[in-house]
Design goal:
The chain has about 230 residues and is an alpha/beta fold. It has five helices and 14 strands. The structure holds cytidine-5'-triphosphate and calcium ion. Cytidine-5'-triphosphate (CTP) binds near residues 98, 102, 129 and 132.
Length: about 230
């Protein structure tokens, strides 16, 4: 089988990657967002491209960009924009790696004009955003692979396992913010891979580029063999 594979490990494979934060507008000058830099997801897109995959990167607002020329970039701002881009692309993909830090809620309504300061307190009405991972999990056809992330501050493995199942993922990359050097705005990450039926696989603290290589290798193993 190896014999017939000409190019690299993932040549001819199409992979969707979501990365970065989403920004949810409150008014023309303010938004709800989070501290994701997109670094981990961009490193994954680059690692996939280096292995020969055709990569579609749907990227939230960040100044970082992929290095690899073969990465097709769709920039979005909000969770709903990311949802529309990802669900449109996924049917033509072999796999999706969902590294975006999607805002769970958005303001029910973005004000048309800048909101003026008034009383001593104010409340914002928030509504739930679509869950992109869950939507792709429901769309998933036989042979397609979905890898997600879970960033947790407590009971990381338990929460990760719950998300793996609820979102119909094949693998979830769990990172605990309790670990030194892991998470937002670090160049390093410490992760555990959780797959259905397998023992958790715990990795050492390493660069996000090296974690990306591990994720790409795991994806290559999960994809159905070509002949
Ligand atoms: N995710 C997504 N769309 C959302 C929320 C999450 O695609 N609206 C994806 C993330 O990209 C990640 C996985 O789902 O791959 C888990 O995200 P996480 O925020 O950890 O899980 P939630 O289900 O949102 O649960 P909570 O934030 O309450 O822990
Ligand atoms: Ca969330």
């Amino acid at each position: 089988e190896q014999f017939f594979q000409t190019g690299q490990l993932l040549s001819g494979r199409r992979v969707l990657v979501t990365a970065g934060p989403t920004f949810e507008p409150i008014d023309p000058v303010r938004f709800i967002g989070n501290r994701s830099s997109g670094k981990m997801g961009i490193a994954i897109a680059d690692a996939l491209a280096r292995k020969g995959a055709a990569v579609e990167l749907v990227l939230g607002p960040t100044s970082l960009k992929p290095n690899a020329g073969q990465v097709r970039l769709t920039k979005v701002q909000t969770a709903r924009e990311m949802y529309h881009a990802a669900t449109a692309l996924f049917p033509n993909m072999d796999a999706a790696i969902l590294a975006a830090a999607v805002a769970d809620y958005r303001p029910a309504e973005a004000a048309q004009q800048k909101i003026k300061k008034k009383g001593d307190s104010m409340a914002l009405d928030l509504v739930k955003n679509p869950d992109i991972a869950q939507a792709l999990g429901q769309m998933k056809k036989s042979g397609q692979v979905i890898i997600g992330f879970a960033l947790e501050t407590e009971r990381a493995l338990e929460h990760g396992a719950g998300k793996l199942k609820a979102k119909n993922m094949d693998l979830i990359v769990v990172n605990s913010l309790a670990d030194e050097g892991a998470g937002f705005n670090h160049d390093t990450n410490k992760v555990t891979f959780l797959g259905a039926g397998n023992k958790p696989r715990e990795f050492e603290l390493k660069s996000k580029a090296a974690v990306a290589e591990d994720i790409v290798a795991a994806l290559a193993e999960l994809l159905p063999q070509r002949r």
